[in-house]
Design goal:
By secondary structure, this protein is mostly helical. The protein has one domain (3-87). Helix content is 53%, strand content 0%. It has 6 helices and no strands. 0% of the residues are buried. Residues 89-105 have low confidence and may be disordered.
């Protein structure tokens, strides 16, 4: 049962990051959809490295508890980081025999 199971085992408050994943229209496919591995494109889109790099911003308040201001600061830093990664030029694709012969024509 996911979070409910974590709550019953931890028996203490904890912070969690929720990432929406959508859902298939067929209810029978939901468990498999939720539990399947993320694709490379999905992992790139989430950018867990950026989330980790900016996570400390959430706890900059005096009480070390996320506030609206620290959450806003975190989200802004994450979005700026993700945008700068998206605007960086992509590495050129690996050369293949097909692409090499196409260039010669």
């Amino acid at each position: 049962r996911g979070i409910a199971s974590c709550e019953s085992h931890l028996r203490s408050p904890f912070w969690r990051l929720r990432i929406g994943i959508g859902r298939p229209t067929d209810r029978d496919l939901v468990p498999e959809f939720v539990l399947e591995e993320l694709s490379t494109d999905e992992l790139t889109a989430i950018r867990l490295d950026l989330i980790g790099a900016h996570l400390a911003l959430l706890f900059e308040s005096d009480d070390a508890v996320p506030t609206a201001a620290t959450v806003s600061k975190f989200l802004n830093a994450y979005i700026r980081g993700a945008a700068s990664c998206a605007s960086a030029p992509a590495a050129p694709p690996a050369a293949t025999a097909e692409s090499s012969s196409a260039k010669r024509k």
